[in-house]
TrEMBL record:
Pfam families: SIL1. SUPFAM superfamilies: ARM repeat. One of its GO terms (cellular component) is endoplasmic reticulum. One of its GO terms (biological process) is protein transport. GO terms for molecular function: adenyl-nucleotide exchange factor activity. This is Nucleotide exchange factor SIL1. Signal peptide: none annotated. Belongs to the SIL1 family. Residues 86-110 are annotated as: Disordered. The keyword Signal applies. Residues 89-107 have a biased composition (Acidic residues).
Length: 368
């Protein structure tokens, strides 16, 4: 018995919940797009078109829950290979022996191609099932399904599909009272959009940005980070969105919120300014950083990161002038730190090389 080239038969337990269920018969039928498949059917897929046919399994076949691919070579007997096992299942002894003796790279290529097609098809069914649950409004297993979406949202095609089908629902879940649901929803959105221009273009930033900014200031540290991750994905690699962001005054809003955000979120904001803006905001950002460093307390990592950002702005724009209050803050930080502290050395070097007279640096070290 032979099957047309580039066709495969699947004996599987694939279920995709849907409002429309495919009704099988004893004969092969084309499966309409969007209809879900019951368990235990024989499924045939055309690898060139992606079309699927299905029918009721024979009594013996229905008991087999393995996924089986049948490689096609019209000049050779058929071999049946079970996906996920290392060796081919034995059929008729003569046929298997012939395949084993005469197998070549072409046969293996057919097998590998069909394995990949099955993996892709199964992945699409899993994504479809997950999205349908999220869209259903059910709560019992929402966290588990969102965790699945986190894993699935890295792929470009998957990211586009998730944004097309579930973006509005995911955005709504970013305001859920369950913090875990909020966190996972924001992670899914950010991963769908990151480095995925087609997915980004499907989002109406004019409507989405106000929602994100409304939630930004009053959220906890890691939710703030997630929100800024979504904002970054929307504007960093899309010039049109960055222009909308700028014209709507969101860079100014970020500057205003920067001192009030949690430390990790503050560093995310600095990354957005570094990646998107030109020098128009250098002075405002530099003055904001000066004021933050002088008046607020930070953990050591955040302190050094904010100071490094101020130094980087000054190095890139000589027109920026450090205030006398900021210079005094640097000197106070130098005085209260141990000589062995590497950050003390960085402060002293910056005082003279970045914010003062470079020639005075050697004298400063001589006086230590």
């Amino acid at each position: 018995m032979y099957i047309e080239p580039l066709k495969l038969v699947v004996l599987a337990s694939l279920v995709s919940p849907s409002f429309e269920l495919f009704v099988p018969t004893d004969h092969w039928q084309l499966v309409p797009e969007g209809e879900a498949l019951p368990r235990g059917l024989d499924i045939r897929m055309d690898l060139q078109t992606g079309d699927k046919w299905a029918k009721l399994s024979d009594d013996t076949s229905a008991q087999n829950q393995d996924i089986v691919a049948v490689p096609i070579n019209e000049k050779r007997p058929l071999a049946k290979v079970t996906i996920g096992k290392d060796t081919a299942e034995e059929g008729e002894a003569a046929e298997n022996e012939a395949v084993e003796n005469e197998a070549d790279d072409e046969d293996q290529g057919h097998i590998d191609k069909m394995k990949r097609a099955l993996e892709v098809s199964t992945g699409h069914l899993e994504l479809d099932e997950t999205l349908q649950y999220v869209l259903s409004g059910k709560r019992a297993e929402l966290v588990q399904h969102l965790e699945t979406l986190v894993d699935q949202s890295h792929g470009l095609k998957e990211g586009i599909s998730i944004v097309e089908r579930a973006f509005d629902e995911l955005l709504k879940l970013t305001r859920d009272e369950n913090v875990t649901v909020r966190d996972l929803s924001l992670r899914v959105i950010a991963q769908c959009l990151r480095h995925n221009k087609e997915a980004v273009e499907k989002v109406n930033v004019v409507e989405v940005l106000p929602v994100l900014f409304e939630d930004l200031e009053n959220s906890n540290n890691f939710i703030q980070k997630r929100i800024l991750g979504v904002i970054s994905a929307l504007v960093v690699e899309d010039e049109a969105n960055a222009k909308i962001f700028d014209n709507a005054g969101y860079f100014t809003k970020l500057l205003a919120q920067l001192p009030h955000l949690q430390e990790d979120a503050q560093l995310r904001v600095l990354n957005i300014f570094e990646d998107v803006t030109d020098h128009r905001y250098d002075e405002a950002l530099f003055k904001t950083l000066e004021d933050m460093l002088i008046t607020k307390s930070f953990n050591q990592y955040a302190l050094e990161s904010l100071f490094d950002a101020a130094c980087s702005l000054k190095r890139g724009n000589n027109a920026l002038k450090a205030s006398s209050e900021f210079i005094n803050w640097i000197l106070e930080q130098v005085d209260k730190r141990q000589k062995s502290d590497p950050f003390r050395t960085k402060l002293l070097e910056a005082r003279h090389e970045v914010f003062g007279n470079r020639l005075a640096l050697r004298k400063a070290f001589d006086e230590l």
